[in-house]
Amino acid sequence: MADTPDPRVTRSREAILAAARELLREEGPSAVTHQRVAARAEVGRATVYRHWPRPEQLLTDAMADVPMPFFLDPATPVRPWLERQLRMLADQLALPDVLAVTTALVQGARSEPQITTRRDRLATTIGQQLRAALTMAEQAGELQTACDPRDAPALLIGPLLYRSLLEPGPVSDDLIDRLLHAAGTWTAGSAISNPPAKRPTSPTTEL
Amino acid sequence: MADTPDPRVTRSREAILAAARELLREEGPSAVTHQRVAARAEVGRATVYRHWPRPEQLLTDAMADVPMPFFLDPATPVRPWLERQLRMLADQLALPDVLAVTTALVQGARSEPQITTRRDRLATTIGQQLRAALTMAEQAGELQTACDPRDAPALLIGPLLYRSLLEPGPVSDDLIDRLLHAAGTWTAGSAISNPPAKRPTSPTTEL
DNA sequence: ATCTTATGAGACAAGTTGACTCATAAGCCG
DNA sequence: CGGCTTATGAGTCAACTTGTCTCATAAGAT
């Protein structure tokens, strides 16, 4: 069939993207060159050039190949849902693939318009998901004195990003409780509504 | 005097580091090569090689040349002091130089031991400063139910880092109030102790 | 079996990297 | 100010990388 792609093309592109992704994870964006990707993928250098004529295309496609964190549709009660989502986000941000793309996004966004666009899109998506969840919580009466919706991503994700980039290691339940508390006052019936007392950090499982 | 450096050496090194810093700010770490730095600094390529035989050395020295955010010694009442420090930190994190080094640190830390060390040192320094301030606040009776000291940097700096890297733009006073609130309960007499009501974001001046 | 199309080895030109030589000039010292 | 030391920088060189191209080979479809 004319619109079924040639299996050789499919095979080559998958091998190339997988190799690019590996190099990105192991050594960062500067390692994603046609020569190194061809060697790693065990394909001809010309094949890499044929599919991706410019190195920036190869890098951005390799980055796009990595599933980035997102939130599932919110559910009531919102607080335990959000707690789980933040826990999941913390775990995802610790994954080498996700971390590689995250750092490449923030680094590349400073000078590459295409990467700036991708970063903005990711921030917009995750921000909207969070705002929708907080709005739902307010409407359900779970949340009072909510923060400015524009500040929600920074308040709820910022600390997890900080941990991921500057202090890698397990993220405690206490920290996640604190994030939720920073977003506003949660009513009883949706878990703890006051700041939790200081207690020992509980280690969390990591992949 | 034998230990007074040759002014030619001083002049060359300053020109080279300034050029490296500019390229780092404008295009990121991959632009900091001997060839490009020599051209920008208007010195001989051999001179750059003589002072910095390997490109990693040049990059890390250029990064070290940029003053990174830090906190001044805490003062009581701690809360207004911390508020000012966080405001200052937000402003510094928006500076192109600081942003360039920040992104280079988190990117490079993934695969370069020397850069990992620098990142860890920065995180340790700023964390200790914060912990000292919060301890002082607790001892002065300003702060109750303080967060786990290990979580303080993530809670207080994380949102500012998030803004800097993923949502550049002015940081509101409201957001900074929220960070302080996340760190614990502040008593009356050290500014607002309850979560602030939602109010319009106040634009802040940026350099 | 035949035709179409993707692949890949290798060649080529141009550029980059790292090391080196040596002429020139900056800087110090008496 | 002359002599000596030392830093600089233009240019060279080998090795490597990048991007493009050719063409033989083989995969895939019919």
TrEMBL record, chains A, B:
Keywords from the UniProt entry: DNA-binding, Transcription, Transcription regulation
Which Pfam family, an example, fits this chain?
TetR_N
**InterPro entries from the entry?**
Homeodomain-like_sf, HTH-type_TetR-like_transc_reg, HTH_TetR, Tet_transcr_reg_TetR-rel_C_sf, TetR_C
Q: Which Gene Ontology molecular function entries are recorded, alphabetically? A: DNA-binding transcription factor activity; transcription cis-regulatory region binding
Which PROSITE patterns does this UniProt record tie to the protein?
Answer: HTH_TETR_2
Top-rank taxon = Bacteria
Identify this protein by name: TetR family transcriptional regulator
Source organism per entry reads Acrocarpospora macrocephala
